[in-house]
Amino acid sequence: MPYPETMIYGMRAELANLGIEEAKTTEAVDEAVKNTDGTLMVVVNSVCGCAAGGVRPGIAMALANSPNVPDRSITVFAGADIDATETAREYFTGHMPSSPSIGFLKNGELVQLFERRDLEGRPPQMIAQALVEAFNAHCAKTEAANN
Question: 5-137, which class in CATH?
Answer without folding.
Answer: alpha beta
